[in-house]
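Same chain as my last thread, 161 residues:
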Amino acid sequence: MDSGAAWPDTAEQTERSDAPASSVPAPSLVRAARTHLTGRFARAAAGLLWEEHQVPLPDIEAAEETLAAAEGGQATGPDIAAALVVAQAARLDADRLEYRVWQAAERAGLSLEQIATVLELPSAEAASRHRAWLRARASLPTVPDGPTLRRRAPLGRKARV
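reply #2:
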C-alpha cells in the first residue's frame, strides 16, 4: 500500500511548541508519520479502514508494527523515524489522559497528599509540580484527526452496528 503522502522536509519538522520537558512533534509531522506508517504496515481490517475511510493505525500499534518490521529487517530509516514521531504523539495523549484523570480525582475529593501516595510521589508539593507539568502538556497542540492510543471508529456512533 502506498502511503500517498510525502515525508515533510526539515523546515516543516521544526514547527514545534515550547514544550515542557518532553518533545512534542508538530501536528503536520504527526499526520505525515501516521500516513507513512499506515501505508506501510496496515493489514487486514486496518488496511481496509485506511483504504476506505483514511483511518490511520493507532500510534502505539503503528510503532509496534514498525518494531516488528525492524526485527525482520523490513523497516527503513523513515519507518523508524516515523515510529519515533508517533511514539511522542502517544506520550502526549497519555499525558493528556493522566491530566483528565487527575482532574476527576480532584473532583472526587482526593487531596494532593492522597494523589501523591497513589502515584508514589514523595510529597504533596511534588504532586503539585507534576500536576502543573501535566496541565502544561495538556495545553500543547495535538492532532485530533487520528488515533493515538486506540482505534476510533470511522463512522459516527449512530452508524455503528
